[in-house]
Design goal:
The complex is a heterodimer of chains A (295) and B (388).
Chain A (H helix, E strand, L loop, with lengths): L6 H10 L6 H13 L3 E5 L5 H12 L3 E5 L6 H4 L1 E3 L1 H10 L6 H8 L5 E3 L1 H6 L8 E5 L6 H13 L1 E4 L3 E4 L5 E6 L7 H5 L2 E5 L4 H11 L5 H15 L9 H13 L7 H7 L7 H8 L2 H10 L1
Parallel strand pairs in A: 1-8, 1-9, 2-5, 5-8
Antiparallel strand pairs in A: 3-4, 6-7
Helix pairs in contact in A: 1-2, 10-11, 10-12, 11-12, 11-15
Chain B lengths: L5 H17 L6 H13 L5 H12 L6 H12 L22 H11 L25 H6 L7 H13 L6 E10 L3 E2 L1 H10 L9 E8 L2 E6 L5 H15 L4 E6 L3 E3 L1 H4 L4 H11 L9 H11 L1 H4 L5 E5 L8 H14 L2 E6 L12 H6 L5 E4 L3 H12 L8
Parallel strand pairs in B: 4-5, 4-7, 7-8, 8-9
Antiparallel strand pairs in B: 1-3, 2-3, 5-6
The chains are: A alpha/beta (295), B alpha/beta (388).
């Protein structure tokens, strides 16, 4: 499928795939595609950053290549690695008299190369440029950021034994961050930026209806309202949209069509992940439920 | 608002980028080029898209969004000059501009200066004049009794002090003679010798200094120490991975402000940004704010947290304790510095301090250079493992 020609198209196609975003996100995606720039998405945990990239891959009919970052991630895990056991075997199985130079050329060919996500995103024959999702970049370290900076400016990778591999088509790059630390400005400068906020009540209801259709309409609205109420409270970890969906699904699985204080108390672990938060909310469950049912 | 052709738009876009730059956003040529290209892709009659497009180009941090919105409103939808500041209700138009720049922009855009930025009366740091003492005396002199000249000397002492925070092992590996076998290098080497593993290369985790987080009380009761503690923070910020916050009634992050090389400019921007220097103290609230909004961002990688406060708290001690317990759990080490601890016969009897004490790993003085040097030694000697 071709790139969406207008912002409206992006919005509509996201919606068709049950991703309820707003106009600003659609604009950022549209521009990132048009300008062929990476899109840097920040937001609290569980607001749908990763999901946006996944859905974009579907929208574009492209392959999703995902690189999950972690502390200490290095080139061997992100870009490429030689398949050493195979190389060693190959060289030992060779006859004595064979040309060593030719042999070295042979074992350092693409046949012995283990391709990791970043190399795959640069060097491929996909009909449509792939979507490269660099997830939770804030978990990686500065060394890796510096490497990405280089990659994202020229879209090429040098492998000493093979040479420079340049992207024949620029992948659509989406970088996400939970802001557990500040990502370097130089990297952000190469990207378009979008901050995903928590949705308002109507939008959150819409999201629950789209993604957790098993929840009855009344239940969807009440759970969304309940979570909106929790977000206004003084909590260590405010529930995201992912938690709203988990909660709605849990309640639907229990056969609930409305919420009540007992059900909420029994299932609120779906939304609250800190003991202190659970304690704090527990006392106020009846009031919260009442408020949610009026919303 | 942005009527006219795309050609007419370019000079205005350049001016808008300058306004953003003056307000502290990064708006260099690269972004300006991107903005031009972006506007070429959208329908300029759609105001919302126009705003969204410029935001995604010029903003790279959530914190910058309000500044961008204010600048956008002022520049592309200027308020009626006859009306008072803030035409759109509920939206702050305040831009962090220096008074001169605010005036220049107000002129250029035909506005009252009051519509450009909120004048902030920057609180001056306390200072007196004249006096001299030898370095050693200076080291042990209470900050409270110091003169301006002495303050300057202390500043030099602190800047020379070798601040080093203890190291921690990271998950990134580096070549080494001991440690785990590095299959990649060993195999690579073996290929040269026809597949014979002649040498085993090894690697082990790299060590890196722990990040340091400073949370500094600048409320009224700490006024006499504020300037020196800011100098101290600036001295560390220049060579360490430091995150710095100040609080009195609310918490403000000053990390970026302290990174300016020039001390006076750094302190100047801190006092401009922090609105409640010398206000009342709500330590519990400040820590609650920190725990909710910053802890996850700055306490990664085994950070050491240093709180500097005299413990005079107007809030509820149980609130302070709850937040301190949470903070203690997420920090590698929690150190409380109290300037009053240096005074003779001081006992931590303020309600806040007494409640806080059991939840800190260390409780040290912070009233003179020698005390800060003690802190330096403690930081350098921290264990690589959590002590609990």
């Amino acid at each position: 499928m071709s790139a969406p020609p207008t912002i409206e198209d992006v919005e509509r196609r996201l919606r068709e795939r049950k991703y309820i975003g707003d106009r600003a996100l659609a604009t950022s995606i549209f521009l990132a595609l048009k300008l062929q720039k990476p899109l840097f998405i920040e937001g609290e945990a569980g607001v749908g950053k990763t999901e946006a990239a996944k859905v974009m891959a579907e929208v574009l009919g492209a392959r999703l290549i995902r690189l999950q970052c972690y502390e200490g991630i290095d080139l061997a895990h992100a870009v490429y690695e030689w398949n050493y056991p195979r190389q060693l075997l190959h060289i030992r199985l060779m006859g004595e008299g064979e040309d060593r130079r030719a042999a070295e050329r042979e074992i350092f060919s693409s046949e012995f190369l283990l391709r990791r996500p970043l190399l795959d995103a640069i060097d491929n024959d996909d009909a449509t440029p792939p979507v490269l999702l660099i997830d939770e970049i804030d978990r990686s370290d500065e060394e890796f950021e510096a490497f990405l900076l280089e990659l994202l400016s020229d879209f090429q990778i040098s492998i000493p034994e093979i040479g420079t591999i340049k992207a024949r088509q620029v992948p659509f790059v989406v970088i996400t961050s939970n802001r557990t630390r500040e990502v370097h400005d130089a990297l952000k400068r190469r990207c378009l930026y979008h901050w995903i906020d928590y949705p308002d009540l109507d939008k959150e209801v819409e999201i629950v209806r789209a993604r957790a259709p098993e929840a009855a309409d009344g239940l969807a609205r009440e759970v969304a309202a309940l979570v909106q109420g929790l977000r206004g409270m003084d909590l260590y970890k405010v529930p995201g949209v992912a938690e709203t969906l988990d909660w709605a699904r849990s309640l639907a699985a229990l056969g609930a069509t409305r919420i009540d204080p007992n059900l909420v108390s029994a299932t609120m672990g779906a939304a609250l992940k800190y003991q202190e938060d659970l304690e704090r909310v527990r006392e106020q469950v009846p009031a919260l439920v009442e408020k949610a049912q009026r919303a | 608002m942005h009527e006219g052709s795309r050609v007419d738009l370019l000079p205005r876009l350049g001016a808008f980028a300058r306004l953003l730059h003056d307000a502290g956003l990064e708006a260099g040529p690269r972004r300006l080029t991107d903005a031009t290209r972006a506007l070429g892709c959208i329908d300029l009659k759609q105001e919302l898209d126009f705003r969204n497009a410029l935001r995604s180009v010029f903003v790279s941090r959530k914190e910058d969004i309000p500044t961008f919105e204010a600048a956008f409103d002022i520049f592309w939808a200027p308020p009626d000059p006859r009306s008072a500041a803030g035409v759109l209700p509920g939206r702050s138009r305040a831009l962090p501009l220096s008074p001169e720049r605010a005036k220049a922009w107000a002129n250029a855009l035909g506005l009252n200066a009051s519509q450009m930025n909120r004048e902030q009366d920057a609180t001056e740091f306390p200072a007196s004049s004249s006096g001299y003492s030898a370095e050693e005396l200076l080291r042990h002199k209470d900050f409270e009794d110091m003169t301006w000249t002495e303050t300057e000397q202390v500043r030099r002492l602190l800047e020379q002090a070798p601040w080093r925070v203890a190291e921690k092992r990271t998950r990134r590996l580096r070549p080494s003679r001991t440690g785990r076998i590095d299959l990649r290098r060993s195999a690579r080497h073996a290929i040269r010798s026809s597949g014979e593993l002649m040498t085993l290369f090894r690697r082990k985790p790299r060590v890196r200094r722990r990040p340091l987080v400073l949370i500094c009380d600048v409320s009224g009761s700490m006024e006499r120490y504020s300037r020196l503690l800011m100098i101290f923070a600036h001295a560390i910020a220049r060579r360490e991975d430091l995150e710095a916050f100040v609080f009195s009634t609310r918490l403000t992050r000053i990390t970026r402000l302290l990174r300016q090389r020039d001390l006076d400019r750094a302190l100047d921007s801190v006092s401009k940004r922090v609105h409640d220097f010398s206000g009342g103290t709500r330590i519990g609230d400040a820590l609650a704010d920190f725990n909710r909004h910053w802890a996850r961002r700055v306490l990664g990688h085994g950070a050491v947290v240093v709180i500097i406060s005299d413990g005079w708290d107007r809030g509820d001690p149980s609130h302070l304790v709850a937040e301190l317990i949470h903070l203690h759990r997420s920090a590698h080490r929690l150190i409380w510095l109290n300037p009053l601890l240096g005074s003779e016969g001081y006992e931590p009897l303020t309600r806040g301090m007494a409640a806080a004490l059991p939840h800190c790993d260390d409780f040290l003085a912070a009233h003179n250079v020698a005390a800060l040097e003690d802190l330096g030694r403690l930081l350098a000697s921290l264990d690589s493992r959590k002590s609990r």
